[in-house]
Amino acid sequence: MSSFMESLKLLSEEKNIPIEVLKEALETAIGSAFKKNFGKNQEIRVEINEDTAKIRIFSEREVVEDELGNSSVQITLEDARKIDNELDIGDIVEEEVTPDNINRIAAQTAKQVILQKIREAEKNQIFEEFNGKIGKIIIGKAQKIDKDPDGRIRKLMVDLGKLEVILLRKDLLKTDHFSTGDTVKIVIEDIVRNGKGPELKVSRSCGKFLKALFENEIPEIQDGIIEIKEIARDPGNRTKMAVHSKDSNIDPVGACVGYRGSRIQGILDEINNEKIDIVRWHEKIETFISNALAPAKVISIIMDEGNKGVKVVVPEDQLSLAIGREGQNVRLAARLVGYRIDIKSVMQEQDKLNIFKEI
User: What is the pTM of this model?
Assistant: First the structure.
């Protein structure tokens, strides 16, 4: 075997590129170079012998009856039978047209083709590696940080080893503070291919990031006993998360929080003590809505299924708690359950009834 083919096979093994892929790419490139020098309109086939590395080029012409539309790709039946008297119309005639300088042509194209295939293979390997980690936590190092005059991060570049990713302000928490070299946990939301290679969409502010943190920390979630059903998040401020246990003997909320907050504390540390309301998911929507409005207590719920709305009545002293600061509690609850929620106190509802009575 030639040293060239030995080198090609070693490269194939090292970069995990099938030898057939490299060989086919070389044959295509050599064919293109040949046509550029000896006639673009030809139909040719390039053959590289794996044992000897010998390169041969064959022209391919179709047998036609007598009139030639293009002599570069066609041959008359009469001329074809001078080569092989068993040929017939429609058959393909191959004739070797290997030039004397074929080795020089091959040498000029081989390096470029091999480098291109190596780059493609490396991009594919990176894509496959990270494509299997969508929705998972990955860890990198803060490399370059752009801050505004107030010290808040505008853009953060994170080194993941095989590639770099950028988190914009919207991908970070308001309370995030990183310095160059710090460890940064992020979640992969998506990955796409582009001309430069795989591009990762990453975040610390999305619901997937919080979900992945819980999956890493809570064994019952890892085992599939407890399921995170929904997450509504105001990043850096507050989150509502609905959980469900497939085992009636396991409290899903208690399992996520742990004894005296032992299980959730590591998660809170990572998100800078963002407030998390963990509530029980329920298949009955009224019960789920009541749970979602916690810590407020609910007296009654009136459903308006047609408009995807619901009116909730709470005790007078629970109204501000149910609504939350700047409407945060009810807004997150509505996102969690997928319904518009209109909250009234008992007194407000009673006053409305009295008005109707007077009318």
Answer: 0.73
